[in-house]
Design a protein that fits this description.
0% strand, elongated
Length: 172
């Protein structure tokens, strides 16, 4: 078994050596010859060809410059568009903040008016009960405490209103 394997390996390697191809260095020689012809071409070329080549080079250069200018212009337009969108977004955001602050001012004003109505009711109730003399001094003090708490609520709401109005003035 080992002998058969060994003999087939030797046979296959000998076939491979027998049918192998020789590699020629033609590509290297062709590349050197091509370089030489390129070096020789400008010397041999007539004056008319040189002028045509110069004109062609100038045309290509002008095209490249035009493409560069077009590219710069496109970038400039894109940047202006981006800046415009950014400004528009900032403007919309500022308008939204103004609307929300106006809404909060309106809500605070309605709260203040409701609290003032409640304060007036408390004061009327206290006056009615004191005029009928149904309240003891302790109850009168408790009612005064309620009235003062209501006034404190109104003052806090008033300070909130002032702050909201200042923010609105800053936004405008």
């Amino acid at each position: 078994m080992n002998i058969k394997l060994f003999s087939t390996i030797i046979l296959l390697s000998s076939f491979q050596l027998f049918f192998a191809q020789n590699v020629k260095n033609d590509t290297l020689k062709a590349a050197i010859a091509f370089k030489d012809t390129i070096k020789m071409a400008p010397v041999v070329a007539p004056i008319a060809d040189k002028e045509a080549l110069k004109k062609e080079a100038k045309i290509l250069k002008d095209k490249a410059n035009a493409e560069k200018k077009a590219l710069k212009e496109a970038k400039k337009i894109e940047k202006e568009k981006k800046d415009f969108e950014k400004e528009k977004k900032a403007f919309d955001k500022r308008q939204q903040k103004i609307l929300s602050s106006e809404e909060s001012i309106r809500k605070i004003k309605t709260k203040i008016s409701n609290e003032e109505k409640d304060l007036i009711k408390l004061q009327k109730r206290l006056e009615q009960k004191t005029s009928k003399e149904k309240l003891s001094p302790i109850q009168i003090e408790q009612e005064n405490i309620r009235i003062s708490k209501q006034q404190i609520k109104i003052n806090k709401l008033q300070t909130q209103l002032d702050k909201a109005e200042q923010n609105l003035r800053k936004l405008r």
